[in-house]
Protein: 3-demethoxyubiquinol 3-hydroxylase
Amino acid sequence: MQEVLPNNSDNTNFREISIFDSIICELESSLSILSGKVQSHRPNPSIKINDEYLLSEEEKLLVSRLMRINHVGEICAQALYRGQAFACKDKNIKDLFISASIEEIDHLVWCRQRIRELDGRTSILGPFWYISSFLLGLIASFYGSSVNLGFMSETEKQVEAHLEKHLNLIPHFDSKSRSILLQMQEDEIHHKEVADNAGADDLSYFSKISMKIMSKFMTKLTYWL
Ligand SMILES: [Fe+2]
Ligand SMILES: [Fe+2]
Structure:
């Protein structure tokens, strides 16, 4: 590994990052993500929109539940990409996963902010989704870079299609939620292109179907919990 950590106060000696350092970094990162302590890098696309139409209580409940699903999706994206990066041997591919996960932080923060505006709540199952997605990413990384990237490409493709569904479900006058989902959709398309250009493999039919079943399970459960 090329990364180094200072091991004394004057920074004159350095040591390589050990597996224990990496695990501690991952724990710290997961706690920041799950506790909502992370900050977005770009402004929330809905910030300048003044909704003149007030959503009814039923509409607010529906949209907050949909945004909760999207928030969990972003928790999964964080965990997945960090898991994929964790055991990735190729430095360039590893950096690609890390930068994708950093961009996904914006989505995570925007969804959380919108949920709060709608007086909704985030999922109580966040830690469960984070751990399962991290393990899934870790497993994908053992199949080599092209499969690892193929997993990212397929994930982004399915997320983009899922966002399209939500854009059709939320009230058309909810411009705030729409602006967030539209920017997320644009970013997910870009992430897919990045993975494809880096050499993503097309995953097997079985893998794609399994991913769809898992995401369906997640969306159904998160709608209520
Ligand atoms: Fe995202
Ligand atoms: Fe993405």
